[in-house]
Amino acid sequence: MKWEGREESSNVDDRRGMSKGLLVGGGGILVAIIALVFGVDPGQFLGQREGGGKGGPEEEKQAKFCKVVFGDTEVIWEDQFQRMGRKYQKPTLVLFSGQTQTGCGAADAGIGPFYCPADTSVCLDLSFFKVLDDQLGAPGEFARAYVIAHEVGHHVQRLLGYSTRVDEARSGPKRLANEMSVRLELQADYLAGVWAHHAQKRFNFLEKGDIESAMNAASKIGDDHLQQQGRGRVQPDTFTHGTSKQRQRWFMEGYKTGDVNRARELFDLQYSQL
User: Fold this and answer.
1) What is the domain extent for residue 45?
2) Residue 7: inside a domain, yes or no?
3) Residue 200 burial (CB < 10 Å; 0-12/13-18/19+)?
4) Closest Cα partner for 111 from 30, 52, 189?
5) Which class for 93: exposed (0-12), middle (13-18), buried (19 or more C-beta within 10 A)?
6) How far apart are CA 248 and CA 150, in angstroms?
7) 1 and 145 in contact (C-beta within 8 Å)?
8) 3 in a domain, yes or no?
9) What domain count does the chain have?
10) How far apart, in whole angstroms, are the C-alpha atoms of residue 156 and residue 161?
11) pLDDT tens digits, residue range 17-70?
């Protein structure tokens, strides 16, 4: 993935080395799920540094990468919202080490990357990338960009009003709440693909194997794959993010079409058709 030399986002709150908080449940796309299916402390997956602190040159390169990719999402979504006759309200990228406080409460690296709607922030501990590479077997810079774009997708959903429908479902039957969660997560995958479609046209940043690395990451974080690995069995009624095939399908649908309006299909289609 070609990213060096492009402008970094200025909407970044770099808290590495000064984060405090407690481990709580949250909306990360991955690590909390892994912890549940394996029955372990999620912190074991992350190799957290005691007391936080910024790392060396490699970590600084990763931080710069995140800021550039986040800036890319701002450019693309500003343009897409303008085409819809709307103004894109930029979120904030929060980089932290170990623990931090957000508008959604205290958060720990074990939650994984997550979007906090209360303060419109995408929060990320860079040690998650090691989990992606080593624990999940999903290496590659574009796999990391896919993760960031997915979380930004949750922000786009909020601006477009989709998140409200899921919030309302959470007070209903568990099965329905889970199905609505799957719709929301697959839609965030779709929006990540829409971003990649337009970003490739704008920046020509993809290299050989990049799309494949994102598809590989999507397959490794499907509910069915994680449950099979962790429990030895799959329970579809407990899915909250979608299967590997579903996650791959909707990312690629977004990437191929680049059509923001088709995101509504994730809530219009029957659940069995996702």
Assistant:
1) 12-273
2) no
3) middle
4) 30
5) buried
6) 12
7) yes
8) no
9) 1
10) 9
11) 874 443 333 344 455 444 444 333 444 444 444 444 567 999 999 999 999 999
The residue count of the chain comes to 274
Rounded Cα distance between 173 and 54, Å, is 44
β-pairing, 92-96 with 121-125?
parallel
Q: Which of 140, 188, 139 has its CA nearest to residue 160? A: 188
Check if the beta carbon of residue 96 is closer than 8 Å to that of residue 50. Answer: no
- In the numeric block, the tokens 């080395």 are attached to 17
The structure tokens 């058709």 sit at: 273
Q: Which amino acid is at 201?
A: K
Work out the end-to-end distance of the chain between its first and last CA atoms, rounded to an integer number of angstroms.
30
Token pair 């949250």 in the structure block, residue: 26
6 lies in some domain: no
Q: Which residues contact 209 (CB under 8 A, 6 or more apart)?
A: 140
In whole angstroms, what is the distance from residue 111 CA to residue 101 CA?
13
Q: What is the DSSP letter of 24?
A: -
Query: Which amino acid does the sequence have at 182?
Result: V
pLDDT per residue as tens digits for the range 101-129: 999 999 988 889 999 999 999 999 999 99
- For residue 183, give both structure tokens: 């719709």
